[in-house]
Design goal:
By secondary structure, this protein is mostly helical. Helices cover 79% and strands 0% of the residues. The longest helix is centred in the first third of the chain and has 53 residues. The radius of gyration is 22 Å and the shape is globular.
Length: 376
C-alpha cells in the first residue's frame, strides 16, 4: 500500500536529487533537498484538505489528480507561474520573461518579490473563504465546540463568509497594504483588485463544483427511492454525465487550492535560491509527496478514522490566510507558517486519537449525538 501510493514520489526524489547533483553539484543537491522539505512542511495541511475532496471522486479521477494534476502543480505553479507573474507585472513578453529568469536571476527575483502583495491578496482571500465556509457550516463532529457551535449558528446568515472576507480585504487594503514590505509604495489598489479576483475565483469554481455535486447526490437519492424495480437504463446516462462534470469541476477546485497553497512556497523559495530550475525541481519533489499523501489518506480512510483532522487542516488554512495577508507588510519566516500548520494538524490528530480511545473503538466514526459533538 505504502510503496504503491508513494512509489512515484520515491522514484522522482531519487531521479531529481541525482539530476541536481549532476547539474549543480553537492550544493545544488542540498538546495533541492531543502526546497523539497520546505514544500512538504508548508503544504501538509493541503494534503488533508485535498483528501477531504478527493475521496468524493472515483479511482479514475484520483489517477488524474496524481498524473495530469501533478504536471500542473510542478510545471504550472512552480515553474511557469512565477514567469507569468513577472511577464504581467513587468509588462514583458513570455520569451523576455524567460530570458530574464535564466540570465538575470537577481532582477527576476526582484520582480517576483514585488508582485507579492497581489499574490498574497489573491491566495489569502481564497484560503480565507475555504476556512469561513467550513467554520460556518453545522457539522456532526465538532472539534473546538466552544468556537464551532456559535459559528454554525451565525452561518445560517446568507453570504456571511463573503461579507467577512470583503471586510478583511478592505481592512488589509487600508492598513497593511499602505506600506507594503514587498515593493515600494501604496499597494492598496493592487491588493483590493487581487483580493476580489481571489474571491470571485472561489465563488465561481467552488460554486460550480458544489452545484454538480449536489445535483449528483439528488439523482442518486431519486434512484434509491425508485428501487430495484426501475429499468436498468433509467437515469444511468445522466448520472454518469453529472458525475463526470462534478469530478471535473472538483478537480479544478483542487488545482486552485493547490495554487493558493503554493504561493508562499514559491515566494519563500527565493530566500534559498533564485534559480528557477532548482526551485521547480525542489518544490516539485515536495508537491509529489503532497499528492501521494493525499491519495494515501483517501485510500486508508484516515479522515473517517480521525474525524478532527479536517478541522485542524481548516484551522491551519485560516491561519495561513491571515499570515499571507500580513506578509504584504511584514516579513514572516516560512518556518513559522509551516510550524503553525503542523501544530494545528498535530493537535487535531491527538484529539481524534483521544476520542477514539474514549469510545473504546479506535477508528470508529459512529456514536451518539452527544459523543459526536463533544470535541475539545
Amino acid at each position: 500500500m505504502l510503496l504503491k501510493t508513494f512509489g512515484w514520489s520515491f522514484a522522482i526524489t531519487v531521479i531529481g536529487l541525482a539530476l541536481a547533483g549532476v547539474l549543480w553539484g553537492w550544493q545544488g543537491l542540498a538546495i533541492v533537498g531543502i526546497l523539497s522539505i520546505l514544500e512538504i512542511s508548508l503544504s501538509f495541511d493541503n494534503a488533508v484538505i485535498n483528501a477531504g475532496i478527493l475521496r468524493k471522486m472515483n479511482a479514475f479521477w484520483q489517477k488524474i489528480f496524481l498524473t495530469f494534476g501533478i504536471l500542473i502543480a510542478v510545471f504550472g505553479m512552480r515553474l511557469v507561474f512565477p514567469v507569468v507573474i513577472v511577464a504581467i507585472t513587468a509588462k514583458l513578453g513570455p520569451i523576455e520573461a524567460v530570458n530574464l529568469a535564466i540570465h538575470d536571476k537577481a532582477q527576476y527575483q526582484e520582480l517576483v518579490t514585488s508582485a507579492h502583495p497581489a499574490i498574497a491578496a489573491f491566495g489569502g482571500i481564497f484560503l480565507l473563504m475555504i476556512f469561513l465556509d467550513f467554520i460556518f457550516e453545522d457539522r456532526d463532529y465538532k472539534w473546538l465546540s466552544w468556537i464551532e457551535k456559535p459559528m454554525a449558528k451565525m452561518g445560517k446568515l446568507d453570504m456571511l463568509s463573503v461579507i467577512i472576507a470583503l471586510v478583511v480585504l478592505l481592512v488589509t487594503a487600508m492598513t497593511v497594504a499602505t506600506d507594503a514590505a514587498h515593493g515600494a509604495g501604496d499597494k492598496s489598489a493592487t491588493v483590493l483588485l487581487s483580493g476580489v479576483a481571489g474571491l470571485i475565483t472561489y465563488l465561481v469554481v467552488g460554486g460550480i463544483s458544489g452545484y454538480f455535486e449536489d445535483k449528483l447526490e439528488d439523482d442518486e437519492d431519486d434512484e434509491d427511492e425508485e428501487g430495484a424495480a426501475a429499468p436498468a437504463t433509467k437515469g444511468t446516462g445522466a448520472a454518469v454525465g453529472l458525475a463526470g462534470k462534478a469530478a471535473f469541476f472538483m478537480f479544478l477546485y483542487l488545482e486552485v487550492i493547490d495554487a493558493s497553497f503554493s504561493f508562499d512556497g514559491v515566494i519563500g523559495a527565493f530566500a534559498i535560491t533564485n534559480d528557477i530550475f532548482m526551485m521547480a525541481l525542489g518544490l516539485g519533489i515536495g508537491a509529489m509527496y503532497i499528492r501521494s499523501l493525499t491519495v494515501f489518506l483517501v485510500r486508508k480512510g484516515t479522515l473517517d478514522d480521525y474525524v478532527y483532522l479536517e478541522h485542524g487542516a481548516h484551522y491551519a488554512i485560516g491561519a495561513l490566510a491571515v499570515i499571507l495577508l500580513l506578509t504584504i507588510k511584514y516579513e514572516i519566516p516560512e518556518v513559522v507558517t509551516g510550524l503553525v500548520g503542523i501544530a494545528l494538524i498535530g493537535l487535531s490528530f491527538a484529539s481524534s486519537v483521544i476520542r477514539n480511545r474514549r469510545d473504546g473503538r479506535p477508528g470508529d466514526t459512529s456514536g451518539t449525538p452527544s459523543e459526536v459533538t463533544s470535541g475539545v
